[in-house]
Amino acid sequence: MSPTKPWDPRQKSRILLEGPDRAPARAMMKAVGFRDEDLARPQIGVAHSWIGTMPCNWNHRKLAEKVMQGIRAAGGTPIEVNTISITDGITMGTEGMKASLISREVVADSVELVARGHMFDGLVTISGCDKTIPAMVMVLGRLNIPGLMLYCGSIMFGRCAAGGPFSNRNLTIQDVFEAVGAYNAGKISAEALKDVEDHACPGEGACGGQFTANTMATAYEMLGMSPMGWNGIPAPDPRKEEVAFESGKRVMELVRKGITPRSLITRKSFENAIAGVLATGGSTNAVLHLPATAKEFGLKLSIDDFDRISRKTPVLADLKPWGTYTAPEMHAAGGMAVVGKRLVEAGLIHTGEKTVTGRTIGEEIKAAGETPGQQVIKPLAKALKPTGGIAILRGNLAPGGCVIKLSGHSRDAHRGPARVFEREEAAFKAVKEGKIKANDVIVIRYEGPKGGPGMREMLHVTAALQGAGLGETVALMTDGRFSGATYGFMIAHIVPEAFERGPIAAIRNGDIINIDVKKRRLDLEVTAAEMKRRLATWKAPRPRYTNGIFHKYAKTVSNASEGAVTG
Fold first, then answer.
1. Phi and psi dihedrals of 460, rounded to 5?
2. Domains, the chain, with CATH or none
3. Mean pLDDT of the chain, nearest integer
4. Is the pLDDT of residue 267 over 90?
5. Distance CA 382, CA 376 (A)
6. What is the signed CA dihedral for 526, 528, 529, 532, rounded to 10 degrees?
7. 3 state DSSP class of 140
8. What is the DSSP letter of 35?
9. In what helix (H) or strand (E) does residue 267 lie, and over which residues does it extend?
10. Which of 85, 226, 483, 561 is catalytic?
11. What is each CA distance from 97 to 210, 421, 436, 460, in whole angstroms?
12. Residues 411-420: pLDDT tens digits?
Protein backbone atom coordinates (compact mmCIF):
# COMPACT_ATOMS: atom_id res chain seq x y z
CA MET A 1 0.00 0.00 0.00
CA SER A 2 1.27 3.50 -0.84
CA PRO A 3 1.96 5.86 2.07
CA THR A 4 -0.93 8.11 3.15
CA LYS A 5 1.11 11.31 2.65
CA PRO A 6 1.84 12.39 -0.96
CA TRP A 7 4.65 10.30 -2.37
CA ASP A 8 7.58 12.12 -3.94
CA PRO A 9 9.14 9.94 -6.68
CA ARG A 10 12.37 11.91 -6.16
CA GLN A 11 12.35 11.85 -2.38
CA LYS A 12 15.95 10.63 -2.20
CA SER A 13 17.67 12.08 -5.25
CA ARG A 14 16.14 15.50 -4.66
CA ILE A 15 18.30 15.76 -1.51
CA LEU A 16 21.42 14.86 -3.50
CA LEU A 17 20.88 16.90 -6.65
CA GLU A 18 18.53 19.84 -6.09
CA GLY A 19 19.32 23.44 -5.14
CA PRO A 20 22.34 25.76 -5.38
CA ASP A 21 24.24 23.91 -2.65
CA ARG A 22 24.24 20.73 -4.76
CA ALA A 23 25.96 22.31 -7.76
CA PRO A 24 29.19 20.31 -7.15
CA ALA A 25 27.26 17.02 -7.31
CA ARG A 26 25.54 18.06 -10.54
CA ALA A 27 28.84 19.23 -12.02
CA MET A 28 30.44 15.84 -11.50
CA MET A 29 27.49 14.00 -13.03
CA LYS A 30 27.52 16.33 -16.02
CA ALA A 31 31.15 15.34 -16.55
CA VAL A 32 30.00 11.82 -17.49
CA GLY A 33 27.13 12.86 -19.74
CA PHE A 34 24.15 13.62 -17.52
CA ARG A 35 22.11 16.68 -18.52
CA ASP A 36 20.01 19.03 -16.39
CA GLU A 37 16.84 17.26 -17.49
CA ASP A 38 18.35 13.87 -16.54
CA LEU A 39 19.13 15.12 -13.04
CA ALA A 40 15.59 16.44 -12.59
CA ARG A 41 14.07 12.96 -13.00
CA PRO A 42 13.91 10.02 -10.57
CA GLN A 43 17.33 8.37 -10.33
CA ILE A 44 17.01 4.61 -10.82
CA GLY A 45 19.83 2.18 -10.15
CA VAL A 46 20.34 -0.75 -12.52
CA ALA A 47 22.59 -3.17 -10.65
CA HIS A 48 24.09 -6.27 -12.23
CA SER A 49 27.13 -8.49 -11.85
CA TRP A 50 28.60 -8.92 -15.31
CA ILE A 51 31.98 -10.60 -15.16
CA GLY A 52 34.18 -12.07 -17.85
CA THR A 53 34.73 -15.47 -16.27
CA MET A 54 31.42 -17.28 -16.74
CA PRO A 55 28.38 -17.82 -18.98
CA CYS A 56 25.99 -17.29 -16.06
CA ASN A 57 26.12 -13.48 -16.12
CA TRP A 58 27.38 -12.95 -19.66
CA ASN A 59 24.22 -11.19 -20.88
CA HIS A 60 23.94 -8.79 -17.94
CA ARG A 61 25.29 -5.77 -19.81
CA LYS A 62 22.88 -6.07 -22.70
CA LEU A 63 19.97 -6.73 -20.34
CA ALA A 64 21.00 -3.70 -18.30
CA GLU A 65 20.96 -1.58 -21.45
CA LYS A 66 17.40 -2.70 -22.20
CA VAL A 67 16.33 -2.00 -18.61
CA MET A 68 17.84 1.47 -18.88
CA GLN A 69 16.00 2.09 -22.15
CA GLY A 70 12.76 1.16 -20.40
CA ILE A 71 13.51 3.52 -17.52
CA ARG A 72 14.22 6.40 -19.90
CA ALA A 73 11.07 5.68 -21.89
CA ALA A 74 9.04 5.88 -18.67
CA GLY A 75 10.56 9.16 -17.52
CA GLY A 76 13.41 8.11 -15.26
CA THR A 77 17.19 8.42 -15.33
CA PRO A 78 19.03 5.08 -15.10
CA ILE A 79 22.40 4.68 -13.40
CA GLU A 80 24.27 1.44 -14.10
CA VAL A 81 26.09 -0.36 -11.28
CA ASN A 82 28.36 -3.35 -11.96
CA THR A 83 29.29 -5.46 -8.93
CA ILE A 84 31.08 -8.79 -8.51
CA SER A 85 30.17 -12.45 -8.94
CA ILE A 86 31.75 -15.82 -8.13
CA THR A 87 30.82 -18.84 -10.22
CA ASP A 88 30.31 -22.09 -8.35
CA GLY A 89 30.76 -24.20 -11.47
CA ILE A 90 34.34 -23.02 -11.99
CA THR A 91 35.50 -22.77 -8.37
CA MET A 92 33.90 -26.05 -7.24
CA GLY A 93 36.25 -28.40 -5.41
CA THR A 94 38.89 -25.72 -4.72
CA GLU A 95 39.64 -23.11 -2.07
CA GLY A 96 38.05 -20.62 -4.46
CA MET A 97 34.64 -22.15 -3.74
CA LYS A 98 34.81 -20.67 -0.25
CA ALA A 99 34.25 -17.27 -1.87
CA SER A 100 30.86 -18.25 -3.28
CA LEU A 101 28.51 -17.91 -0.31
CA ILE A 102 30.57 -15.01 1.04
CA SER A 103 29.91 -13.22 -2.26
CA ARG A 104 26.17 -13.19 -1.49
CA GLU A 105 26.86 -10.74 1.34
CA VAL A 106 29.36 -8.73 -0.70
CA VAL A 107 26.98 -8.34 -3.65
CA ALA A 108 24.12 -7.21 -1.40
CA ASP A 109 26.39 -4.91 0.60
CA SER A 110 28.00 -3.34 -2.47
CA VAL A 111 24.69 -2.56 -4.17
CA GLU A 112 23.34 -1.22 -0.88
CA LEU A 113 26.33 1.10 -0.51
CA VAL A 114 25.91 2.58 -3.98
CA ALA A 115 22.13 2.93 -3.62
CA ARG A 116 22.46 4.68 -0.26
CA GLY A 117 25.47 6.77 -1.26
CA HIS A 118 23.95 7.98 -4.52
CA MET A 119 20.42 8.14 -3.14
CA PHE A 120 18.62 6.08 -5.76
CA ASP A 121 14.86 6.55 -5.92
CA GLY A 122 14.34 3.05 -7.28
CA LEU A 123 16.31 -0.03 -8.23
CA VAL A 124 16.24 -2.85 -10.76
CA THR A 125 18.60 -5.69 -9.93
CA ILE A 126 19.74 -8.21 -12.53
CA SER A 127 20.93 -11.59 -11.25
CA GLY A 128 22.51 -14.69 -12.72
CA CYS A 129 24.92 -17.05 -10.98
CA ASP A 130 23.69 -18.63 -7.78
CA LYS A 131 24.53 -16.19 -5.00
CA THR A 132 23.74 -13.06 -7.00
CA ILE A 133 20.06 -14.04 -7.03
CA PRO A 134 19.34 -13.96 -3.29
CA ALA A 135 21.77 -11.05 -2.92
CA MET A 136 19.86 -8.95 -5.44
CA VAL A 137 16.56 -9.55 -3.62
CA MET A 138 18.05 -9.21 -0.15
CA VAL A 139 19.25 -5.71 -1.01
CA LEU A 140 15.80 -4.72 -2.26
CA GLY A 141 14.29 -5.70 1.08
CA ARG A 142 17.10 -4.02 2.98
CA LEU A 143 16.84 -0.69 1.12
CA ASN A 144 13.05 -0.85 0.84
CA ILE A 145 12.96 1.46 -2.15
CA PRO A 146 10.70 0.67 -5.14
CA GLY A 147 12.30 -2.08 -7.18
CA LEU A 148 12.26 -5.56 -8.64
CA MET A 149 14.67 -8.34 -9.61
CA LEU A 150 15.15 -9.78 -13.10
CA TYR A 151 17.04 -13.07 -13.52
CA CYS A 152 19.19 -13.27 -16.64
CA GLY A 153 17.82 -16.68 -17.59
CA SER A 154 18.97 -20.26 -17.93
CA ILE A 155 21.55 -21.49 -20.37
CA MET A 156 20.17 -23.80 -23.05
CA PHE A 157 20.94 -27.50 -22.80
CA GLY A 158 23.81 -29.02 -24.75
CA ARG A 159 24.16 -32.19 -26.80
CA CYS A 160 27.20 -34.35 -27.38
CA ALA A 161 28.44 -34.27 -30.96
CA ALA A 162 29.55 -37.89 -31.05
CA GLY A 163 27.94 -41.15 -30.05
CA GLY A 164 28.74 -42.27 -26.55
CA PRO A 165 27.41 -42.72 -23.03
CA PHE A 166 26.18 -39.10 -22.79
CA SER A 167 24.84 -38.65 -26.32
CA ASN A 168 21.25 -39.63 -25.48
CA ARG A 169 20.48 -36.76 -23.11
CA ASN A 170 20.19 -33.01 -22.86
CA LEU A 171 23.34 -31.91 -21.08
CA THR A 172 23.93 -29.49 -18.21
CA ILE A 173 27.05 -28.74 -16.17
CA GLN A 174 25.90 -31.54 -13.84
CA ASP A 175 26.73 -34.05 -16.56
CA VAL A 176 30.31 -32.78 -16.77
CA PHE A 177 30.85 -33.30 -13.05
CA GLU A 178 29.34 -36.79 -13.26
CA ALA A 179 31.40 -37.56 -16.36
CA VAL A 180 34.52 -36.81 -14.30
CA GLY A 181 33.34 -39.38 -11.76
CA ALA A 182 32.67 -41.91 -14.50
CA TYR A 183 36.09 -41.29 -16.03
CA ASN A 184 37.87 -41.69 -12.69
CA ALA A 185 35.97 -44.95 -12.16
CA GLY A 186 37.14 -46.21 -15.56
CA LYS A 187 33.62 -46.20 -17.02
CA ILE A 188 34.21 -43.75 -19.88
CA SER A 189 37.18 -42.74 -22.00
CA ALA A 190 39.07 -39.46 -21.98
CA GLU A 191 37.52 -38.75 -25.39
CA ALA A 192 34.00 -39.20 -24.02
CA LEU A 193 34.80 -36.85 -21.12
CA LYS A 194 36.14 -34.25 -23.56
CA ASP A 195 32.99 -34.58 -25.67
CA VAL A 196 30.80 -33.76 -22.66
CA GLU A 197 33.12 -30.93 -21.61
CA ASP A 198 32.96 -29.34 -25.07
CA HIS A 199 29.17 -29.46 -25.48
CA ALA A 200 27.50 -29.19 -22.06
CA CYS A 201 27.49 -25.38 -21.94
CA PRO A 202 26.49 -23.98 -25.36
CA GLY A 203 26.32 -20.27 -24.50
CA GLU A 204 25.15 -17.57 -22.12
CA GLY A 205 22.94 -18.17 -19.11
CA ALA A 206 22.99 -19.77 -15.67
CA CYS A 207 23.23 -23.54 -15.09
CA GLY A 208 20.33 -25.29 -16.78
CA GLY A 209 18.73 -27.65 -14.25
CA GLN A 210 16.63 -26.86 -11.21
CA PHE A 211 19.91 -26.18 -9.48
CA THR A 212 20.38 -23.23 -7.13
CA ALA A 213 20.10 -20.47 -9.74
CA ASN A 214 16.82 -21.63 -11.25
CA THR A 215 15.51 -22.69 -7.83
CA MET A 216 15.94 -19.18 -6.48
CA ALA A 217 14.81 -17.46 -9.68
CA THR A 218 11.52 -19.36 -9.66
CA ALA A 219 11.16 -18.96 -5.89
CA TYR A 220 11.35 -15.18 -6.23
CA GLU A 221 8.61 -15.28 -8.86
CA MET A 222 6.44 -17.07 -6.30
CA LEU A 223 7.56 -14.57 -3.65
CA GLY A 224 6.36 -11.67 -5.78
CA MET A 225 9.62 -9.77 -6.32
CA SER A 226 9.92 -10.84 -9.97
CA PRO A 227 7.04 -10.83 -12.46
CA MET A 228 5.69 -14.34 -12.99
CA GLY A 229 7.28 -16.03 -16.00
CA TRP A 230 9.96 -13.45 -16.72
CA ASN A 231 12.77 -15.24 -14.88
CA GLY A 232 12.01 -18.49 -16.66
CA ILE A 233 12.74 -17.09 -20.12
CA PRO A 234 16.09 -18.61 -21.18
CA ALA A 235 19.05 -16.27 -21.61
CA PRO A 236 19.34 -16.57 -25.43
CA ASP A 237 15.59 -16.08 -26.02
CA PRO A 238 14.91 -12.67 -27.67
CA ARG A 239 12.01 -12.18 -25.27
CA LYS A 240 14.53 -11.85 -22.42
CA GLU A 241 15.53 -8.43 -23.72
CA GLU A 242 11.86 -7.50 -24.12
CA VAL A 243 11.09 -8.19 -20.46
CA ALA A 244 14.25 -6.33 -19.48
CA PHE A 245 12.80 -3.25 -21.21
CA GLU A 246 9.49 -3.87 -19.44
CA SER A 247 11.35 -4.14 -16.11
CA GLY A 248 12.56 -0.59 -16.63
CA LYS A 249 9.04 0.63 -17.27
CA ARG A 250 7.66 -1.34 -14.33
CA VAL A 251 10.11 0.08 -11.80
CA MET A 252 9.04 3.57 -12.81
CA GLU A 253 5.43 2.62 -12.08
CA LEU A 254 6.49 1.39 -8.64
CA VAL A 255 8.48 4.59 -8.04
CA ARG A 256 5.59 6.85 -9.02
CA LYS A 257 3.17 5.00 -6.76
CA GLY A 258 5.61 4.63 -3.88
CA ILE A 259 5.25 0.84 -3.80
CA THR A 260 8.14 -0.56 -1.79
CA PRO A 261 9.23 -4.20 -1.32
CA ARG A 262 8.17 -4.38 2.32
CA SER A 263 4.71 -3.04 1.43
CA LEU A 264 4.26 -6.07 -0.86
CA ILE A 265 6.00 -9.02 0.73
CA THR A 266 4.65 -10.84 3.79
CA ARG A 267 5.42 -14.04 5.63
CA LYS A 268 2.74 -15.71 3.52
CA SER A 269 4.65 -14.60 0.43
CA PHE A 270 7.65 -16.52 1.73
CA GLU A 271 5.50 -19.59 2.37
CA ASN A 272 4.47 -19.41 -1.30
CA ALA A 273 8.13 -19.28 -2.29
CA ILE A 274 8.93 -22.32 -0.13
CA ALA A 275 6.07 -24.27 -1.70
CA GLY A 276 7.46 -23.43 -5.13
CA VAL A 277 10.91 -24.68 -4.17
CA LEU A 278 9.52 -27.94 -2.80
CA ALA A 279 7.18 -28.63 -5.71
CA THR A 280 10.05 -28.32 -8.18
CA GLY A 281 12.50 -30.47 -6.21
CA GLY A 282 14.66 -27.39 -5.75
CA SER A 283 18.05 -26.84 -4.19
CA THR A 284 18.76 -27.14 -0.46
CA ASN A 285 20.45 -23.75 -0.78
CA ALA A 286 16.95 -22.26 -0.61
CA VAL A 287 17.00 -23.23 3.08
CA LEU A 288 19.85 -20.74 3.47
CA HIS A 289 18.72 -18.04 1.08
CA LEU A 290 15.02 -17.62 1.85
CA PRO A 291 15.51 -17.12 5.63
CA ALA A 292 18.34 -14.71 4.83
CA THR A 293 16.03 -12.83 2.44
CA ALA A 294 13.16 -12.80 4.94
CA LYS A 295 15.45 -11.20 7.52
CA GLU A 296 16.11 -8.32 5.12
CA PHE A 297 12.35 -7.83 4.76
CA GLY A 298 11.96 -7.66 8.53
CA LEU A 299 10.35 -11.11 8.67
CA LYS A 300 11.21 -14.33 10.50
CA LEU A 301 11.51 -17.60 8.60
CA SER A 302 12.92 -20.78 10.12
CA ILE A 303 14.16 -24.07 8.76
CA ASP A 304 11.15 -25.71 10.40
CA ASP A 305 8.88 -23.78 8.04
CA PHE A 306 10.45 -25.76 5.20
CA ASP A 307 9.77 -29.06 6.94
CA ARG A 308 6.18 -28.12 7.80
CA ILE A 309 5.38 -27.05 4.24
CA SER A 310 7.30 -29.99 2.76
CA ARG A 311 5.09 -32.51 4.57
CA LYS A 312 2.07 -31.36 2.53
CA THR A 313 3.63 -30.23 -0.77
CA PRO A 314 4.00 -32.76 -3.61
CA VAL A 315 6.93 -32.79 -6.03
CA LEU A 316 5.41 -31.95 -9.41
CA ALA A 317 8.21 -30.90 -11.76
CA ASP A 318 10.41 -33.59 -13.32
CA LEU A 319 13.62 -31.58 -13.39
CA LYS A 320 17.35 -32.17 -13.27
CA PRO A 321 19.48 -32.84 -11.25
CA TRP A 322 17.45 -35.89 -10.25
CA GLY A 323 14.77 -35.75 -12.96
CA THR A 324 14.55 -35.67 -16.73
CA TYR A 325 14.13 -32.13 -17.96
CA THR A 326 16.02 -28.83 -17.96
CA ALA A 327 14.90 -25.34 -16.98
CA PRO A 328 14.31 -24.19 -20.59
CA GLU A 329 12.04 -27.19 -21.08
CA MET A 330 10.06 -26.21 -17.98
CA HIS A 331 9.65 -22.70 -19.38
CA ALA A 332 8.43 -24.17 -22.67
CA ALA A 333 5.87 -26.23 -20.72
CA GLY A 334 4.39 -23.09 -19.16
CA GLY A 335 6.85 -22.30 -16.42
CA MET A 336 6.47 -21.64 -12.74
CA ALA A 337 2.92 -20.36 -13.14
CA VAL A 338 1.79 -23.87 -14.10
CA VAL A 339 3.42 -25.23 -10.94
CA GLY A 340 1.61 -22.47 -9.08
CA LYS A 341 -1.67 -23.44 -10.70
CA ARG A 342 -1.29 -27.01 -9.41
CA LEU A 343 -0.46 -25.74 -5.93
CA VAL A 344 -3.51 -23.47 -5.95
CA GLU A 345 -5.63 -26.52 -6.83
CA ALA A 346 -4.14 -28.26 -3.78
CA GLY A 347 -4.84 -25.27 -1.54
CA LEU A 348 -1.14 -24.69 -0.93
CA ILE A 349 -0.77 -21.08 -2.14
CA HIS A 350 -1.83 -17.87 -0.42
CA THR A 351 -3.38 -16.37 -3.55
CA GLY A 352 -4.01 -12.89 -2.15
CA GLU A 353 -0.36 -11.89 -1.70
CA LYS A 354 0.81 -8.88 -3.71
CA THR A 355 3.52 -8.81 -6.35
CA VAL A 356 5.60 -6.19 -8.16
CA THR A 357 3.26 -6.42 -11.15
CA GLY A 358 0.38 -4.78 -9.30
CA ARG A 359 -1.54 -8.05 -9.38
CA THR A 360 -1.80 -10.71 -6.70
CA ILE A 361 0.10 -13.97 -7.01
CA GLY A 362 -3.24 -15.70 -7.55
CA GLU A 363 -4.00 -13.43 -10.50
CA GLU A 364 -0.53 -14.00 -11.92
CA ILE A 365 -0.97 -17.77 -11.69
CA LYS A 366 -4.47 -17.68 -13.13
CA ALA A 367 -3.17 -15.98 -16.27
CA ALA A 368 -0.76 -18.85 -16.95
CA GLY A 369 -0.84 -20.78 -20.17
CA GLU A 370 0.07 -24.47 -20.16
CA THR A 371 1.53 -26.07 -23.28
CA PRO A 372 -0.78 -28.92 -24.38
CA GLY A 373 0.79 -32.34 -23.89
CA GLN A 374 3.75 -31.10 -21.86
CA GLN A 375 5.38 -33.77 -19.67
CA VAL A 376 7.55 -31.63 -17.40
CA ILE A 377 5.02 -30.50 -14.78
CA LYS A 378 2.81 -33.31 -13.56
CA PRO A 379 -0.85 -33.02 -12.51
CA LEU A 380 -1.57 -33.45 -8.81
CA ALA A 381 -2.93 -36.94 -9.37
CA LYS A 382 0.40 -38.00 -10.88
CA ALA A 383 2.78 -36.23 -8.50
CA LEU A 384 6.33 -37.56 -8.58
CA LYS A 385 6.39 -37.64 -4.78
CA PRO A 386 3.46 -37.06 -2.41
CA THR A 387 5.52 -34.77 -0.17
CA GLY A 388 8.19 -32.18 -0.80
CA GLY A 389 11.80 -32.55 -1.76
CA ILE A 390 13.39 -31.28 1.46
CA ALA A 391 13.28 -32.40 5.10
CA ILE A 392 14.81 -31.00 8.28
CA LEU A 393 16.47 -33.52 10.60
CA ARG A 394 17.65 -33.23 14.18
CA GLY A 395 19.35 -35.63 16.57
CA ASN A 396 22.47 -35.96 18.66
CA LEU A 397 24.57 -35.04 15.60
CA ALA A 398 22.49 -32.01 14.64
CA PRO A 399 20.68 -30.52 17.65
CA GLY A 400 20.38 -27.24 15.75
CA GLY A 401 19.06 -28.91 12.63
CA CYS A 402 20.28 -30.02 9.21
CA VAL A 403 18.76 -30.47 5.77
CA ILE A 404 18.34 -33.46 3.46
CA LYS A 405 17.15 -33.35 -0.12
CA LEU A 406 14.60 -36.09 -0.79
CA SER A 407 13.76 -35.50 -4.45
CA GLY A 408 16.53 -37.56 -5.97
CA HIS A 409 16.22 -40.88 -4.16
CA SER A 410 13.70 -43.35 -2.79
CA ARG A 411 15.42 -44.31 0.47
CA ASP A 412 14.17 -42.92 3.75
CA ALA A 413 16.80 -44.49 6.02
CA HIS A 414 20.48 -45.37 6.06
CA ARG A 415 22.70 -46.91 8.73
CA GLY A 416 26.39 -47.40 8.21
CA PRO A 417 29.99 -46.81 9.29
CA ALA A 418 31.47 -43.33 9.25
CA ARG A 419 34.29 -42.39 6.88
CA VAL A 420 35.56 -39.11 8.30
CA PHE A 421 37.30 -36.36 6.32
CA GLU A 422 38.44 -32.97 7.59
CA ARG A 423 37.98 -31.24 4.24
CA GLU A 424 36.37 -31.79 0.85
CA GLU A 425 39.55 -32.53 -1.09
CA ALA A 426 40.37 -35.56 1.07
CA ALA A 427 36.91 -37.02 0.52
CA PHE A 428 37.13 -36.51 -3.24
CA LYS A 429 40.52 -38.23 -3.30
CA ALA A 430 39.07 -41.24 -1.45
CA VAL A 431 36.20 -41.54 -3.94
CA LYS A 432 38.56 -41.14 -6.88
CA GLU A 433 40.85 -43.87 -5.54
CA GLY A 434 37.96 -46.29 -4.97
CA LYS A 435 38.25 -46.26 -1.18
CA ILE A 436 34.56 -45.60 -0.50
CA LYS A 437 32.37 -48.69 -0.24
CA ALA A 438 28.66 -49.36 -0.32
CA ASN A 439 26.88 -48.49 2.95
CA ASP A 440 29.56 -46.01 4.05
CA VAL A 441 28.51 -42.68 5.56
CA ILE A 442 30.95 -40.06 4.31
CA VAL A 443 31.47 -37.29 6.88
CA ILE A 444 33.02 -34.03 5.63
CA ARG A 445 33.51 -31.54 8.44
CA TYR A 446 35.15 -28.19 9.16
CA GLU A 447 33.45 -26.90 6.01
CA GLY A 448 30.79 -24.81 7.80
CA PRO A 449 30.18 -21.05 7.62
CA LYS A 450 32.95 -20.35 10.17
CA GLY A 451 35.13 -23.41 9.79
CA GLY A 452 35.49 -23.37 6.02
CA PRO A 453 34.93 -20.54 6.06
CA GLY A 454 32.16 -20.07 3.54
CA MET A 455 30.33 -23.42 3.43
CA ARG A 456 31.71 -24.94 0.27
CA GLU A 457 29.38 -27.05 -1.85
CA MET A 458 30.36 -30.72 -2.13
CA LEU A 459 29.41 -31.27 -5.78
CA HIS A 460 32.89 -32.49 -6.66
CA VAL A 461 32.37 -35.36 -4.20
CA THR A 462 28.67 -36.06 -4.75
CA ALA A 463 29.01 -36.07 -8.54
CA ALA A 464 32.03 -38.36 -8.25
CA LEU A 465 29.90 -40.77 -6.21
CA GLN A 466 27.18 -40.72 -8.87
CA GLY A 467 29.71 -41.21 -11.64
CA ALA A 468 31.27 -44.13 -9.77
CA GLY A 469 27.87 -45.79 -9.32
CA LEU A 470 27.78 -45.28 -5.55
CA GLY A 471 25.03 -42.68 -5.39
CA GLU A 472 22.34 -45.13 -4.30
CA THR A 473 24.38 -47.07 -1.76
CA VAL A 474 26.22 -44.49 0.35
CA ALA A 475 25.23 -41.46 2.43
CA LEU A 476 27.09 -38.21 2.91
CA MET A 477 26.81 -35.64 5.70
CA THR A 478 28.56 -32.30 6.11
CA ASP A 479 28.48 -28.99 7.94
CA GLY A 480 29.08 -27.48 4.51
CA ARG A 481 26.41 -27.37 1.84
CA PHE A 482 25.49 -28.88 -1.50
CA SER A 483 25.22 -27.64 -5.02
CA GLY A 484 21.75 -27.51 -6.48
CA ALA A 485 23.09 -30.13 -8.90
CA THR A 486 23.60 -32.62 -6.06
CA TYR A 487 21.27 -35.56 -5.59
CA GLY A 488 21.41 -38.74 -3.56
CA PHE A 489 21.21 -39.44 0.18
CA MET A 490 22.98 -36.26 1.22
CA ILE A 491 22.72 -34.23 4.44
CA ALA A 492 24.09 -30.71 4.81
CA HIS A 493 23.98 -27.52 6.93
CA ILE A 494 24.64 -29.47 10.14
CA VAL A 495 24.28 -27.15 13.16
CA PRO A 496 26.35 -26.67 15.26
CA GLU A 497 29.25 -26.99 12.82
CA ALA A 498 32.46 -28.78 13.79
CA PHE A 499 34.39 -25.53 14.22
CA GLU A 500 31.98 -24.53 17.00
CA ARG A 501 32.37 -27.82 18.88
CA GLY A 502 29.38 -29.35 17.16
CA PRO A 503 28.80 -33.08 17.72
CA ILE A 504 29.93 -33.76 14.14
CA ALA A 505 33.44 -33.04 15.49
CA ALA A 506 33.15 -36.09 17.78
CA ILE A 507 32.64 -38.68 15.02
CA ARG A 508 35.40 -41.25 14.54
CA ASN A 509 36.07 -43.56 11.64
CA GLY A 510 33.93 -46.68 11.94
CA ASP A 511 31.32 -45.14 14.25
CA ILE A 512 27.81 -46.15 13.25
CA ILE A 513 25.59 -43.32 12.02
CA ASN A 514 21.83 -43.79 11.81
CA ILE A 515 19.71 -41.62 9.50
CA ASP A 516 15.93 -41.95 9.73
CA VAL A 517 14.06 -39.49 7.53
CA LYS A 518 10.59 -40.58 8.68
CA LYS A 519 11.54 -39.82 12.28
CA ARG A 520 13.53 -36.76 11.15
CA ARG A 521 16.60 -38.05 13.03
CA LEU A 522 20.36 -37.98 12.50
CA ASP A 523 22.20 -39.82 15.27
CA LEU A 524 25.59 -41.19 16.20
CA GLU A 525 25.24 -44.54 17.94
CA VAL A 526 27.23 -43.70 21.06
CA THR A 527 26.02 -42.93 24.56
CA ALA A 528 25.46 -39.37 25.69
CA ALA A 529 28.30 -39.86 28.16
CA GLU A 530 30.69 -40.92 25.40
CA MET A 531 29.66 -37.98 23.22
CA LYS A 532 30.27 -35.62 26.14
CA ARG A 533 33.66 -37.19 26.84
CA ARG A 534 34.80 -36.83 23.25
CA LEU A 535 33.70 -33.22 22.98
CA ALA A 536 35.38 -32.37 26.29
CA THR A 537 38.76 -33.25 24.78
CA TRP A 538 38.09 -31.43 21.51
CA LYS A 539 40.40 -28.57 20.63
CA ALA A 540 39.48 -25.89 18.15
CA PRO A 541 41.60 -25.98 15.01
CA ARG A 542 43.49 -22.87 14.00
CA PRO A 543 41.47 -20.61 11.68
CA ARG A 544 42.38 -21.25 8.06
CA TYR A 545 42.48 -17.51 7.34
CA THR A 546 43.77 -14.81 9.67
CA ASN A 547 43.23 -11.74 7.50
CA GLY A 548 41.12 -10.50 4.63
CA ILE A 549 37.48 -11.09 3.82
CA PHE A 550 37.46 -14.80 4.69
CA HIS A 551 38.68 -13.91 8.19
CA LYS A 552 36.12 -11.11 8.59
CA TYR A 553 33.33 -13.38 7.38
CA ALA A 554 34.22 -16.17 9.80
CA LYS A 555 34.12 -13.67 12.67
CA THR A 556 30.64 -12.36 11.86
CA VAL A 557 28.63 -15.08 10.11
CA SER A 558 25.68 -16.81 11.80
CA ASN A 559 24.98 -20.54 11.66
CA ALA A 560 23.35 -22.28 8.71
CA SER A 561 19.97 -22.64 10.41
CA GLU A 562 19.84 -18.83 10.57
CA GLY A 563 20.74 -18.41 6.89
CA ALA A 564 24.50 -17.85 7.34
CA VAL A 565 24.02 -14.08 7.46
CA THR A 566 26.50 -11.46 8.64
CA GLY A 567 24.20 -8.73 9.89
1. -55, -40
2. 13-156+204-380 (3.40.50.2300), 390-561 (3.50.30.80)
3. 96
4. yes
5. 12
6. 100
7. helix
8. -
9. helix 267-279
10. 483
11. 20, 18, 24, 11
12. 899 999 999 9
Phi, psi of 320, rounded to the nearest 5 degrees: -60, 145
C-alpha of 312 from chain center:
22
3-class SS at 163? coil
For residue 1, what pLDDT band results from cuts at 50, 70 and 90? very low
Per residue in 325-360, pLDDT (tens digit) is 999 999 999 999 999 999 999 999 999 999 999 999
pLDDT over 80 (residue 5): no
Amino acid at 221: E
The predicted pLDDT at position 4 comes to 64
Tell me the average pLDDT across 474-484: 94
Q: Which amino acid is at 491?
A: I
Of 9-23, 176-190, 365-379, 549-563, which gets the smallest average pLDDT? Answer: 176-190
Q: Is 483 a catalytic residue?
A: yes
How buried is residue 542: exposed, middle or buried, by Cβ count under 10 Å (0-12/13-18/19+)? exposed
Mean pLDDT to the nearest integer, 470-483: 94
Please list, in sequence order, all residues whose beta carbon lies within 8 angstroms of the beta carbon of residue 327, skipping any fewer than 6 positions away: 154, 208, 209, 210, 214, 232, 234, 319
Q: Model confidence at 531, in pLDDT bands (50, 70, 90)?
A: very high
What φ, ψ does residue 62 adopt, rounded to 5°? -70, -35
> Helix, strand, or coil here: 547?
coil
Is the backbone peptide bond immediately before 321 cis, with ω within 30 degrees of 0?
yes
Nearest of 165, 471, 54, 186 to residue 176 by alpha carbon: 165
Q: What CA–CA distance (Å, rounded) separates 161 from 194?
A: 11
Tell me: cis bond preceding 291? Omega within 30 of 0 counts.
no
Eight-class DSSP state of 317? B
The residues, ordered by sequence, that sit 6+ positions from 221 with a Cβ below 8 Å of its Cβ are 227, 228, 229, 230, 231, 232, 276, 336, 337
For residue 6, give the 3-state DSSP assignment.
Answer: coil
Instruction: From residue 505, give the alpha-carbon distance in Å to each of 302, 478, 497, 539.
Output: 25, 11, 8, 10
User: What mean pLDDT is predicted for residues 379-389?
Assistant: 94
pTM for the structure as a whole:
0.96
Whole-number Å distance between alpha carbons of 8 and 257: 9
